[in-house]
Design goal:
single chain, alpha+beta, Membrane-bound Lytic Murein Transglycosylase D, Chain A, Glucose Permease (Domain IIA), 2 domains, ten-stranded antiparallel sheet, two-stranded antiparallel sheet, 3 helices, 12 strands, elongated, metalloendopeptidase activity, Cell_wall_metabolism_enzyme, M23ase_b-sheet_dom, signal, LysM_dom_sf
Length: 260
């Protein structure tokens, strides 16, 4: 996998979170405080940090909605909270409304500790840790393409967060399971032409280095449906880089795909 994928601090989880929440909002009309009807979804172009203030996530909240309510751009809210979670923020999670290091000179407000498992102690509000070992999945995962595995997942290695499957230019790349396309574009450095599919509130799959993308954001896809043509955009050979993510964290795809 190309090390440039992590350049400039851009992460696939943050991008997927942003595009999935944007897609979920559809075309609802929003009126910002102090402003008129914009005729469509409007988001702040610049953020207004609120030093010392936090908000507690409630069921149904999204980063996009929280950002709009508090006059902060989704990108800043993601960066300030170091979120690498492409589809889910959880009830009870504390979201900071200001960049790290900014202070207001007064005690923080609305600080709530997220739910902890029995037996835990202290007042830490750190995000839930990445899963240790395989997490059970009820999804019937399929291989996205035929070909030899030329790159494998390595836990903790930010440049090896999935598997690389070699093939030929134009070869079909298929959806690994039923889902909805939440990203289709080339905006993430090192992944080339990229597609991200949301399968549930916890599970995502990503397909990079495509020659041509055949699906659009918001489109529903079925397991085994062709979504792209294999290529080498952002890579040095024809292949598909494939990731499975649970709650935004990469997991080993070979723990979930059928044995070959």
């Amino acid at each position: 996998m190309n090390p440039d994928r992590l350049s400039k601090g851009v992460r696939i989880g943050a991008l997927a979170l942003l595009v999935s929440t944007l897609a979920a909002c559809g075309t609802a009309t929003v009126v910002r405080p102090g402003g008129g009807n914009a005729g469509g979804v409007t988001t702040p172009k610049t953020s207004v940090p609120k030093p010392g203030q936090t908000v507690v996530v409630r069921k149904g909240d999204t980063i996009y909605a929280l950002a709009r309510i508090h006059d902060i751009t989704p990108a800043d809210l993601i960066a300030w909270n170091r979120l690498d979670n492409p589809s889910t923020i959880y009830p009870g999670q504390v979201i900071r409304l200001y960049p790290q290091g900014a202070t207001s000179g007064r005690a923080p407000t609305t600080v709530v500790t997220p739910p902890r498992s029995a037996g835990s102690s202290g007042g830490s509000t750190a995000p839930a840790p990445a899963p240790v070992g395989p997490v059970k999945s009820n999804i019937a995962w399929r291989w996205p393409a035929d070909g030899a595995i030329v790159g494998r997942y390595v836990a903790g290695d930010a440049t090896k967060q999935g598997v690389d499957i070699a093939g030929t230019s134009g070869q079909p790349v298929k959806a690994t399971a039923n889902g909805v396309v939440v990203y289709s574009g080339a905006g993430l450095v090192g992944y080339g032409e990229l597609i991200i599919i949301k399968h549930s509130d916890q599970w995502l799959s990503a397909y990079g280095h495509n020659r041509k993308r055949l699906v659009n954001e918001g489109q529903s896809v079925k397991a085994g449906e062709q979504i792209a043509e294999m290529g080498r955009t952002g890579a040095n050979r024809d292949m598909v880089h494939f990731e499975i993510r649970y709650n935004g964290k990469p997991v080993d795809p070979q723990q979930y795909l059928p044995a070959r």
